[in-house]
User: Fold DNA alkylation repair protein from Celeribacter baekdonensis.
Amino acid sequence: MTPEDAMRALNAAADPTRAADLAARFGEGVYLGVAPTTLEETARDWRQAVAFPERLDLARGLWATGVFDAQLMAAKLLTQARIKEDAEIWAQICDWLELATTWPVIDALSAAGGRRIAADLSKMETVHALVQSERGLDRRAALMLSMPLAKLAHPTDAEKLAIDDVLFWLTYALQDADKDVSRTAETWLKSLGKHDVKRAKMVRRVVQSRASDG
Assistant:
């Protein structure tokens, strides 16, 4: 499959009404308005049909179009739990995170990146750097990339340490002036609280204490 083949398929699934709504929400850009369920189902089919490294080339071709829906698809093509050699894929995800300008694309890339982090926790270094960014989208990306850790019901010792590292800056993310970031941080904490009430309550106490001192 070539990027041209993929774009023809995406164009065939375009919805002008949805595209206009996306343009109104996210500003200038090229939107096809492909339904989320269609994107997800198509991505699943293409992941099965195209193996790496050809799939990475396909994703790059789609990203290069600049089309919103194609960039979502590019991220979804890289969303896979087990990838034998993922260094180049991880690097590409990180590069695209810097270029992404809308939260849906950030979230799609973070879903792909979160799986790479789950396979190698040393990649959390990138997350800790993103959370210090002045750009709100980067701080959201840090939360979304690390979200799989919040959902672990039975984390390993290494994963518990990674969670504790996140909790250090999560207390600040919950008070972020960017409401999009603070809401995402709240989602992170609620996910953690479903199976680790002790840690979640500790974070709440720290935030409340800081608010009282302020």
